[in-house]
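Hi W.,

Here's what went into the run:
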Amino acid sequence: MSSPSPSLAEPLTDVLTRVEIRRRDALKLLGAGIALAKAGCMQAPGEEVLPYAHKMPELSPGAPLWYATSIVLDGYATGVVVESHEGRPTKIEGNPAHPASLGGTSAIQQASILDLYDPDRARVVELAGMPSSWARLAEQLGALPPGPLWLVLPPQSSPLVAGLIARIREGHPGTRVVYHAPLGRGAAYRGAVHAFGAPLEVQLDLTRADVVVALDADLLGAMHGAVRWARDFAARRHLDAPTDTPVRLYAIEPMVTPTGSLADHRLAAPARDVLPVATALLSELGRRGRPVPPLPPVAASVGLPPERLRWVRAVADDLIAHAGRSAVVVGDRQPAACHALGHWINAAVGALGATVRLTAAALDEPLGDATLADLAAAARAGQIGTAAVLDCNPVYASPPALAIEAALRAVPLTVHATPQVDETSRACQWTAPLAHYLEAWGDARALDGTVSFVQPLIRPLYGSPSTVEILAALAGLRGKTGRALLREPWRPRLAAAGPAFDQAFERAWTAALGDGFLAGTAAPALPATPTAALPAALVAELDRVLAPPADDRLELALAGSPAVHDGRFADNAWLQELPQPMTSLTWSNALLVSPRLADRLDLADGTVVRIRSGDRTLLAPALRVPGHADGSVTLELGYGRRAPDQPIADGVGVDGFALLGADGALIVPAVDLAATGQRRRLARTQLELDDHGRDLALAARLDDYRRDPDFTREHRGPLPSLLPVPERTGLQWAMTIDTTICTGCSACVIACQAENNVPVVGADGVRRGRAMHWLRIDRYVARERVVHQPMLCQHCEMAPCEYVCPVYATSHSPDGLNEMTYNRCVGTRFCSNNCPYKVRRFNWFHYNRPETTAALQHNPDVTVRDRGVMEKCTYCVQRIRGAEIQARMERRDVRPGEVVTACQQACPTGAIQFGALGHADTPMVKWRQQPRAYAVLHDLGTRPRTMYLAAIRNPNPALDNDEDEP
Amino acid sequence: MAALFPPWANTVYRAVLAAGLVGATVVVAAPMVLARTSYVTGEDQPIEQPIEFDHRHHARDDGIDCLYCHPGAERTAHAGIPTTETCMGCHGQVWNQSPLLEPVRRSYFSGEPIRWRRVYDLPDFVYFHHGVHVQAGVACARCHGDVANMPRVYRAAPLTMTWCLDCHRDPPGPAHPGRRVTAITTCSACHR
Amino acid sequence: MTPTAAADPILVGAPTPGELQDQLLATTWGQGGRGWRIAFAIAGALTLLLFGCIAYTVATGIGVWGNNVPVAWAFGIINFVWWIGIGHAGTFISAILYLLEQRWRTSINRFAEAMTLFAVIQAGLFPLLHLGRPWFAYWLFPYPSVMGVWPQVRSALPWDAAAITTYFTVSLLFWFLGLVPDLATLRDHAPTRRRRILYGLLALGWRGSATAWRHYRAAYLILAGIATPLVVSVHSIVSSDFAIGLTPGWHSTIFPPFFVAGAIYSGFAMVLTLVIPTRAAFRLKNVITVRHLELCACLLLVTGLLVAYGYTVEYFIAWYSGDEAERYQFFHGRPFGPGSFVFWAMLACNILTPQLFWSRRLRRNVRVLFVASILINVGMWAERFVIIVQSLQREYLPSGWRGYAPTWVDLSILAGTLGFFSLLFLTFLRLLPFVAVAEMKELRAELAHEDAAHRGPA
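Here's what came out:
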C-alpha cells in the first residue's frame, strides 16, 4: 500500500473537479468495458479511450492513489485509508497509524464504500415531494419561521460541528439539540457521573490486562472502540509458545457475541441479571478486604443461584490475584447503575490508571441536550418552529410511544437531510440528499479523543450538501464550502500566529490531511477515583432496578445488528448478505432463543413467534442459538424497515423498535412468546454446527496444551504419497490463521467482497446455497463452546480441483497459488464437487449488474466474472502480482510483508497472516511452526497452503470442570 | 417396370457423398483458419482517429521519443495517451493556427478530453503491464511494429493468446543489455 | 441358460419368406393406429417442452435448475448417466450377442439398436446443457486453438466427450449397415414412387448379389468387433467422472464394472418396456416370442445380481476404509439423510424386483415383465440420484452440508427427454422395419434346415 503522500491531499478538490467524470459518462464508459468483457477474447475495434485534457500532477492512469479520511459512527471517528482509481474510490482500509484502527476495520466500515454508489441514494432536494434545489433550501434555512429551532442529529464529537451549533444557538436563541442514537452510550456516561460526578470516557488498555471481565459487553465486536480493543486483546491472547500465559476472559451475556465466543468462562444469563452479578461481585470484593463503598441493603438482598455465586467468587478471586492487571468492562445497554458499579469494581481491583484510564468524553454534550421525548412533547405543544433532522431516522429508530412521525408533522417547518429517502423523510417537508463521508469535509474525535479529519475523495455524485454545510446554512454562513468551513477554525489551532503563518498553516494542514488525524490529540488521562460512598441517586436507582422481578417472565434483549447497526445500513446489500456472526443468518433478523427454551415452546428454526410486551406485539421468526441464555430472548434492531425508496432494506426482517419502551431501554424486562402456525424460511449460510467428531476445528485447554503441545500431530506433517510431490522454487505463498484470536466479526468477509468484486445473490440465492463469499467463517459449536474457522480456498499443493478441470481453467502456479482463470472456465462445476473444503463459488446467473452505479465500486484490478463461470479465493493474486511487478521493475525481490491480502488487512485482531514461506521471520511462517498448527482435512493429502492454529483456552482451574457453566 | 434410377445416378451419388465428406472437413477447419486471419484479429487495419495524427511526422521526422508522449510505458500498466496539455506543449507555439489542430485547442480550453480510438485493445480479463515489459527490455516495436513509419497507426500484432505465449514461453534476449527476461506462463500473470 | 429350444421357439410357426417379409414390412406401409397417434401427440408436446426449457436455461443461466454448492451436479448428470446406460443394451445385443452367435438376438436387435441411438441422443444433450457456458463446449475437444491451450487429459470429461461421440457414430453406422438390405427390400416393394426413391437413396444401390452379401458380412462382423469394446469403455469412462473424484461415495475403484453392469441392466429393462407393447400393438408375437422376453428377463436377473454385488462391495469398502466421511456417507447420509426415500426406492427396485425372475412362471408372464422393467428403469434413475446428489450433500466439512431440491425446469427437462425419446422411437416404428427382415428370413431358413436335420433319421 502506497501511503497517502501529504502533497496530494491539499489540492484534492481541485483535482477532483478535473478528475470527476459526470455520472452518465462514467456509466457509458463502464458499459463499454463490460460489453468488451462479454465480447470474449476478440477485440471490439475502435473502443474510445479518453486521456485527461490536463496533466494530473500526482495521478498516472492505472495506478491507484490512497487518501486518509475518517469514518464517524454515532459520533466516534475511526481513521481509514481509501483506495482511489482515477478519482473513483473503491476500497476502505484501516489507517495503521490511527489509534482507533491500527489498520483494522469493522465489517460495517468495510461496507461503507458501497453506500457511496448505492443506486437508491437520495439525489434531489425535494419540497413536499416536488423537486427543488439546494439553493432554495439554503435560502429557507437562512430565513426560518418564528419559534425555536430543534436539531436532531447523531451524537457529535466534531469541533467544527460544535462551533457551528454554538453559532446557531447565538443566531437562534432557544435552539435545542437532540443527539439521536438508539444504540448510544448515554447510560455509560450517566454511570460515570454516578461514580465520578462527570461523564468521563473509559479508555481500556488491554495490552496490560491478564484478566478481563465483560459484563454484557461485546468489547471485541459491537462496542465503539472494539476494533482497537480487539487488536490489543489479541496481542495478549495469542500464544507464541505453550509457555505463554494468555489473557483470561470472563463474559456474562444473554446472546453469544464475538466476545462471549472467545470467553474462557461464559455465563449465559439474561441481561437484567448482569447488574445483580455486578453487585454481588462488588460485595465479594469487599468481603475479600478490597476497598469498596458500603452497599445499600438492597444489594444484600440479591440472591444469586449457587452456580452463579460460584462464578462470581471465582471471578473475584481472579481479579484480585491479578490486581492492577485486570479490568471489568460494562456493556452500553446496561443501566447507568451497572456502569457505576463497574467503576467501583475497577477501582477496587486497582484497574483505574492501569488497565482502565478515564478521560474527558469524546462527545460534545455526552449527556445530551434534549431527548426525542422532549421533542415530541414540545412539537405537540406547538412550541417548535423548525425541526431539522440531519443524518438520522428517528421516525423509524425510536420508541413507538413517542409517535415522532405525528410530532414532526405538527412542526411548521421540517427539514430532513438524509443519504436515502426513509421513514423520516416522509414525515418532513424538505428532503435534502446528504453527502456520503467520501464526498464531504469534516472532523471528529476518536473514542480516545484523537482529532481525525474527514476529507472527500470525490465530488458529491449528486451535488449533495454535507451535514456541516447544512448547519452552516442554519448558522447564517451561506455559500461557504465544507473545506473553507473546516479550514477556518483550524487555522489558529494548527499554526502559531507569526510572520510565516500561512506557510506554516498550509504545511500543518497538508500533513494533517495526509495522516488523516492529529497525532497527540488524545484526551489526557484524568486522576479520577470514584466517590467513597454511593451517591443517593445511584442508591435510588439500585433500589429500583435491583428489586427481584415479580415472576420469572422472559426478558427481551434488544441489540444492535452487527451488520445493519440501528438500521442506517439496511440498504447495503453486502451487509444484508453478511452471514451474522454465530447465526450465519442473512437478509433478516430473527428472535434468537436458546435450544432449551425453543424445545419448551416447541419452536423450530423459522417458526413465527408472536412477541408481546405490554400492549405492543411483533411477529418474528425464531432461531435457535446454542449458548443463548434460557431466561432471555434476543432480537437485533435495524430490520423491518418500511422505506419504499430503499428497495434493499424495505420489508427485510422485523422491526425490533416496535417493542421498545418509551424510555428507549434496550432491555425489555418482560415479554410473552406464543408460537403461531406460520413458518418462514430463513436464509442461512451454515446449517450444521456440529463437527460430527471429525476434528476439523481443533481446540485445547491451556494446561492440556502444555501437557501435550504436540496434540495436533495427526493433522500436519508429511503424508505418504504415490504421486510425485512437485518441488517448487522461488517465493511460495501461504496463509496462517490463529483461531485462538478469531472473533468471527466477519470484517474479512466484507473486505474480500469489496476487494474482489464478489456479487450478492439475495435471500433466495442464499437459501438455495448460492452465496458467493470467497471467505466464509465456519463455526463449530461443541458444548456451547464456539470455534470460528475462517474458511477460504486452501490453495492445496495437491489440489483436487485442478486435475478434474477439462480445460485447465484452474491450475497451479509455480509460486504455489491455486489459480482460477475465469475466462477459460466452461462451467462444468466438477472442481466444486471435488473440493473437500467447498470453497468454490459458481455464477449461477449473471450476478454482476454493470448498469447500476454500484458497479462503479468494482476493483479494476480484478476481473468481473460473467455468468456460468466458477470463482474462489485467489489469495488476492492481483496484489501479489502487483507487488511482484513493482519489485521486478525495481530489480529487487518482494519484501517480507509487502503483500497483504484484503482479509488480513481488515482483520481487527490480526488473526490472518499471509506471506511467503521463504520469509522466515514473518509471523505467518513463525506461527505455522508452532506445535498447535494444523491443516484441515490433512489426511486427504491435499497439502493445503492455508494452515490454522488451534484455539487455546485459558480456563480458571477454580471454575473449570468438564461440563460448562449453565 | 422401369429402373428406379438411371445409370448415371451412381456417379452422382458418389459425388454427393464425397462432397459431403469434404464439406464436413471444411466446416471444422474453416473457423480455425479464419481465427488466424487479420479479418478476425483486426491486425494491420489502420484505425481512423478524430485528429489526423501522423506518427511518421512526429516520431520519424522530428525524432520525438515514444516516452515523451507515452511516459507511462516505462513504469505503469498503461503507456498512456498523451494529455491535450502535452500536445499543446509544442502546438501552443508551432502550427498554433492550424485548422487541423482545432479539436486539440478546443479540448485544451474546454477541458473535454479528445476521444481517441483504441488501436491495441485487450479483453478486460487480460492484465497487461507496460512497465514490467519495458523494464525487462522488451522494445516497443516488438509489439507495436514500426510506428514511426505508420501514417495512421494500425495494430502490428494479432494479440491472440498464442502470440503472447510465443514470447512468454521462450522469451528472446533483452533488447537492452543487462536486462533480464524470464519465461512466465502461469495463468495469473495475465488473468486475475 | 438355454431352456429347451423345442418348448418355446424363437420363431412361431413356419411362415414362408414372403409371408414373413409382408408381415414385417406391413408396419411401414400400414396406417399407424389411433393409439400410435395419441402417443405421438403426447411425445411431441413433451419434446416442445424440452426444447422450451433448454432455451430458457441457456438464456437465463444454469441457476434455473436446483443445483447449488455443494450439490453442483444433479438432474443434468443423473439424466445423462441414466440415458447413456439405457443406450447400452442395443450395442450389447447387436454386437456381443452377434459375436456369441445368439440367434434369438435377430428379432430384437434392430429395435434395440434404434433404442440405443435415441437414448444416446438424449444423453448427449446433457453434457452440453449442464455447462455454465455451453457455447464454449468445443474447448473440451483437442483442436489447435489460437489460445495455445489444450484440454486436460487427466480429467474424465474430455474422454467423456470423445467416448460419447464415438459411441454414437459407431452405433449409427452399425444400425445403418444392418438396415441396408431391408432398405433395398423396402425400395423394391414400396407402394408409391416417392417412397421408392427415398428408400432407394438410403439403400445405397443394394442389389443383394452374392459378392455384396460377402462384403456385407465382413463389414458387419468388423463393426461388431469395433462396437464390442465400446459397450464396456463408454460407461467405464462415464463412471470415472465420479471414480476419479474424492467425494465420499464417488471415490471407488469398483465403479467401472459396476456402472457397465448397471447400464446393461437398465438397457434390457428399457428393451422390455418398449418391446412388450410394440409386439402387441403390431401383432408380432410370433416373431418376438415369449422366449425372447424370457431370455431378457434372465439377463436382467444376472445383471441385477451384479448390481447388487456392486452395492454390497461399496458398503464393505466404506466400512473397511475406516474413513469417517465415507462411513457417514453410507451408514447415515444415504439411508437416513435428506432424500433417503430415493435410496430405499433404489434398493427395492433394483435388488428385489429381479428376484422375481428366479421363477420361470413369472419371467414368462408378460404383465409382470412389463411392470418389473419399468420399476427397474425407475430404480436405475434413483441409483444415479443417490450416487450424485446424496453423495454431494454430505461431504467432508459439515459446515458445507446442504440439501437439494429440483425446480420445475429440472422436472420438465427429464419429462422432455422421455418425450423426445418416444417421439424418435415412434417415428422409427413407422418409417423402418423394426425387425430385421433379411436376417429373419435367414434365421427362418436355418431353423427349417435344422428341423429337417432333426427329422432326418426317423
